[in-house]
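Show me a record, fold above all:
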Amino acid sequence: MGNKINSIKGFQDILPKDAIFYRDIEKMLLSLTNSFGIKEVRTPILERSELFNRSIGDSTDIVNKEMYAFEDKNGDNICLRPEGTAGILRSMIQHNMIYDRGIKKQKIWYYGPMFRHENPQKGRYRQFTQFGIEYFGYDDTNSEIELILMMSTFFKSLNLKNIKLHINSLGSLADRNNYKEIIKSNISDKIESFEEPIKLTFNKNPLRLLDSKNENIAKICAELPNLLENINSDSKNKFDDFVKKLEDLGIEYIIDNSIVRGLDYYNDLVFEWKADQLGAQNAICAGGRYDNLVNELGDTSVPAIGLAMGVERIIELLKNENYQNNHIILPFVDEHGGNNVNFIKITNKIREKYKNFNFFNTDTSASFKSQLKYAKKINPDIAILIDSSKLSDEIKIYYTSSNTNLKIDIKDLNKKIQDFYE
């Protein structure tokens, strides 16, 4: 036999014990977006590299280092999508859902795999799952609040603790460029002692130094003038209005000068939810306003705001919180054995009646003792015993801890299971 083939570094197999987390999150997100009337769009995994070069920015690490970009058989430069916003916007423009004769308001959500060639860490993979929401045509702070409220509700429903909302404002594009010069003029003499990657960031996009994980850079940047004090009055008034609404709704927040986002297309409000349990890579959901991006890609001015959430990081938090899911598998065991078709008929009747439960048929060709032993591995608490020697509505619930069983009618199964787990 040859050497075994393993998965590629940074690409993980999602095994059954983890797939349950993904499924729960997907169901909750579908319910959440439905409750706010947000429509789903699914874009291709492959896009033209130019889309991200123009939208994300040539100075970002994503474009320079992390994109899986290559030339296809037609000679086109394409890539695996590294993020969701640009592809959604490309789709909106291509299908005339945003057009220059008027603004058609759209609320869109997406969910799927993204790809970045970066150093794999806990909760951070080269193929990762991202959920995102994009609002097009909305310029009011109520739309910003709606996004914040939506995700705050989602995190509460998962009972996640120690998650903090960090907010900031970048102001206009002119404000951003002006603040870059402020950074350069204040710390240019201190950068010379740092390694080349930091010098390169300083020269290309000094804003990115504000959220650097390098402790020495963080200390230097902490002494900089505050970004909020260097934005235009309209942006400042809008930010103040947003903050007041957060307070009126009782949503806690931290104004954080280091929140600048890593992509070049943001303006005004930017935000991140951070979880201390994840270490340095602690942002679990982030976003902001990007009013200039539609014009950059589609030659029409449309305000926009969005967010993106890393699903793997949420799952890491759920594991830390000992999250309890409702995927209880109830094993069926044939007391009589012998591969009788009555076993299939009875178990199928139960499935049709109780679609909210997950049932598992044991191997009826095995002995009753072997079936019961395997059932205890599937569910260490209980099993459902069926006598396939006759067709009957009478079944038994077997309780592992007491080694006893209780005869019941099929119609009473739901109540007995609920009583046991309450």
Residues 16-172+231-320 form a domain with the BirA Bifunctional Protein; domain 2 fold (CATH 3.30.930.10). The mean pLDDT is 88. The first strand starts at residue 39 and ends at 40.
